[in-house]
Amino acid sequence: MDYPTLSSLPSWLKTTVVAILGLWLAFLGLDRAFQAGISWQNLNHWQRPISTNDTIAVTAEGKVTAIPDVGLISLAVESRGLKVNDIQANNTRKINDIMTYLKGLGVDKKDLRTTQYNLAPVYSYDPKTGKQNLDGYSLNQTVEVKIRQLDKVGDVLAGSLERGANQVGQLSFTIDDPDKLQQEARLQAIAKARAKAEDLARAAGVTLGKVRSFSENVSSPAPYPMYYARDMMLGAESKAQAPQIEAGSQDVIVNVSLSFEID
User: How far apart are CA 256 and CA 210, in angstroms?
Assistant: First the structure.
């Protein structure tokens, strides 16, 4: 069966067909364009990056000064000798004497911690033979002491040296529980940051909105050392003299960064 072609149609029918096809193509193009516009609007609405031009960003610092409430110190007894049993007995006697003394000063048992117990042979080098000779043994026992009564620090040092401690580690002071001080400094910093943002908003003629982002950096006080030589704490006599020691003060610092929306 032969189908009529467009060229074989009468001129009036040919004109009508062409007009209908043109209208249909035009309608199809508008529909596709409308759908594309909707898709672009949705994409623009959901995937548009958040603008930072509608925010106010500020930083502020909060600082709380406090007096340290804990002292930390390491005390050690080192003994040397030819026989292991002898130096162990000597070290144990001195350490036990020191522990008993510290507990008598009010140092709690949980604040006394043995951090090192090291027994090692001691050698000397003979340049004539090129050999090492065993000269005996060395035993080092170290105890870390946490001192909560800071007025007893001097007595801890002097009394421990008097009872046989021959190595005294660095004395440092710190704050035992800084969380409360950090919270106080944090609230102080946030209040400063908000006040600064409100001043900027008033100057710019805008209204401050809700907080969009927040970050902080906490600077907790680290124990700072104080060094004392043994002969400074020992008087001219053999009996140790208690030195006068001040704990000073430390700063707890919190820096915050806040970003506020602009309404």
Answer: 16
